[in-house]
Automatic annotation (TrEMBL):
InterPro entries: Acyl_CoA_acyltransferase, GNAT_dom. Residues 106-239 form the N-acetyltransferase domain. PANTHER family: N-ACETYLTRANSFERASE (PTHR43072). PROSITE patterns: GNAT (PS51186). This is GNAT family N-acetyltransferase.
């Protein structure tokens, strides 16, 4: 579990699985092809049981999904339990957060970013081209909390897309994608600032996100914008 309870709740509620099952102190999501975030098992209770790991595997295989656990960097006990059963770690990911008011204090240039719901076809095309297909876009439709999509523009062209949703005082931004030919022109920053502006208007005080630790360029951008690293997690899998 993420140490910050507000971010932990928003992390799950703003990117939900299609359905859930529970076993031995774990909750496992059914992702329907929408990626590891919604297709993994995570600790639900501190008294989780290593004996439940095979049961979770059976649930996932019954859903035609690969056995996978999402494990925080600090949970060495679970890491060892999974390693003993043939699991291996991958995709180290950081969770970062910034102050909404500070981000929104420098607004995007006029006509550079818009909050739009439902997403426009061009936003869906940008996501699909960036590796966020219809199965992942379907996650956005399941969110019950306040939500919106952000459209970024540059050179009078649609240049980027993102999805943001709020749970309590935390908003999470997901699916940040910029058209490859239009990168390095500030679009990602405008998406983030517009998301923070929308989130603040909705009552959020922090904007959070998850980013792969090997994505050095994105992490450097987030740090320049005031995002701080709050810890992280990885995906443990087996064949």
């Amino acid at each position: 579990m993420i140490a910050d309870p507000e971010i932990a709740r928003a992390f799950e509620s703003t990117w939900p699985a299609a359905e859930y099952a529970e076993a031995g102190g774990f909750r496992v999501g059914r992702g329907l092809g929408a990626g590891g975030r919604v297709s993994s098992a995570r600790v639900l209770a501190p008294d989780w049981q290593a004996a439940a790991i095979p049961r979770i595997e059976a649930i996932q295989r019954g859903w035609d999904e690969r056995p996978m656990f999402r494990v925080t960097d600090a949970d060495t006990a679970l890491q060892e339990a999974l390693r003993a059963q043939g699991y291996r770690p991958g995709t180290p990911t950081a969770i970062m957060a910034a102050d909404c008011a500070a981000l929104a204090a420098e607004p995007a240039p006029p006509l550079a970013a818009f909050a739009i719901w439902p997403p426009l076809a061009i936003q869906r095309d940008i996501w699909a081209a960036g590796g966020i297909p219809a199965s992942r876009q379907a996650v956005m439709e399941r969110v019950a909390q306040p939500r919106t999509a952000i459209l970024g523009r540059v050179q009078d062209r649609a240049a980027g897309a993102a999805f943001v949703a709020r749970d309590g005082r935390v908003a999470m931004i997901h699916g940040i994608e910029v058209v490859p030919a239009l990168r390095r022109q500030g679009v990602a920053g405008w998406l983030l600032r517009k998301a923070a502006e929308w989130a603040a208007a909705e009552g959020a005080t922090r904007l959070a996100l998850a980013v792969r630790r090997d994505n050095a360029h994105a992490r450097a951008l987030y740090q320049r914008l005031g995002f701080a690293d709050l810890g992280g997690y990885g995906y443990w899998t087996r064949d």
